[in-house]
Write a structure and sequence with these properties.
mainly alpha, MetI-like fold, two-stranded antiparallel sheet, 12 helices, 2 strands, 68% helix, 1% strand, elongated
Length: 309
């Protein structure tokens, strides 16, 4: 048998036998290409991306779309001051008590929520991924301690915890971002833990351990790249929850600037006017929140379906 093996000429091998080592990488590339194709064929993903793109444009360049400044009153050419007027050609979404253009306020209001929510979600996913890797890889006491703390945090209402933190530490933008991130970290950690537990049983992890690779290498270089899809979906989902949480905190008055055109601020200051048939200052910011959250959720659902296929 040894002589036969030694007499084999590499040139006699079939062409397909040589690049077998690169087959897994090629397979992964093919899978990613198919996932991208499926995403761009999904109407939910396309609609969600279009709506999200619109609001991102509003947050980056509100001056391109707004008709007035965020706090500028609507004054006609003849000097007429418009206040509490319904939607018309002069003010597409009407004006509020101060005569400000509701449409322009809605456009400018995208900046606050699309600044805080994605940053908070990114921090939550990064911290949750680290904790989830530790919990799922080491298990034992690390899993027990972190798991019990996570369960304690998750057992309390998110908004209540956020209010308690903001009352103690203030309502600056940094505090709001870190608070929202901390509240979502336990949820992400539990999701990542489940993914790591499944990956830790596979052969490639066992092989890395047998090679004597350190734990941090196995977690970050072996397991983490294989749960990237989970992290992407989790980030998208958390952005949606963070948008709603930030808007709710603004509605309750926990914002760094009470005069800012944040959607939650405007709803809080105008919702009592609905009884007076002045619905437009409240409804349009509410629709903006709903449209953004729905768009993010559509994208998250599409990503989940594409990665699961």
């Amino acid at each position: 048998m040894t002589d036969i093996a030694n007499n084999i000429d590499p040139d006699d091998l079939e062409p397909d036998a040589v690049p077998m080592a690169t087959a897994p990488a090629q397979d992964r590339k093919t899978v990613r290409q198919e996932q991208r194709k499926e995403l761009f064929r999904d109407p939910s993903f396309l609609i969600g991306s279009f709506v999200l793109g619109f609001w991102v444009l509003c947050s980056i360049a509100p001056g391109l779309l707004a008709r007035q400044g965020e706090n500028d009153p609507v004054i006609l050419d003849d000097g007429t001051f418009l206040a509490r007027t319904g939607p018309d050609a002069n003010a597409w979404f009407g004006t509020d008590n101060a005569g400000r253009d509701v449409y322009s306020r809605v456009i400018y209001g995208a900046f606050d929520v699309l600044t805080v929510a994605p940053i908070a979600a990114a921090i939550a996913v990064a911290a949750g991924a680290m904790l989830g890797l530790i919990m799922g890889y080491y298990r034992g006491w690390a899993d027990e301690i972190i798991g019990r703390i996570s369960e304690a945090v998750l057992s309390l209402p998110v908004i209540l915890l956020a209010i308690l933190v903001l009352v103690v530490f203030g309502t600056s933008s940094i505090v709001i971002v870190l608070t929202v991130a901390a509240l979502f970290t336990p949820v992400v950690a539990r999701t990542v833990r489940s993914a790591v537990l499944a990956e830790a049983q596979l052969d490639y992890v066992t092989s890395a351990k047998l090679r004597g690779e350190p734990s941090w290498f196995v977690m970050t270089r072996e397991i983490l790249p294989n749960i990237t899809n989970v992290l992407v979906v989790e980030f998208t989902v958390r952005v949606g929850y963070a948008i709603f949480t930030v808007a709710t905190l603004a509605f309750l008055g926990f914002t760094s600037d009470a005069t800012s055109p944040a959607w939650g601020n405007d709803i809080a200051s105008t919702y009592t006017l609905i009884n007076s048939d002045q619905w437009w200052p409240t409804i349009f910011p509410a629709i903006a929140i709903a449209s953004l959250v729905i768009a993010v959720n559509l994208i998250a659902d599409s990503l989940d379906k594409a990665f699961s296929s």
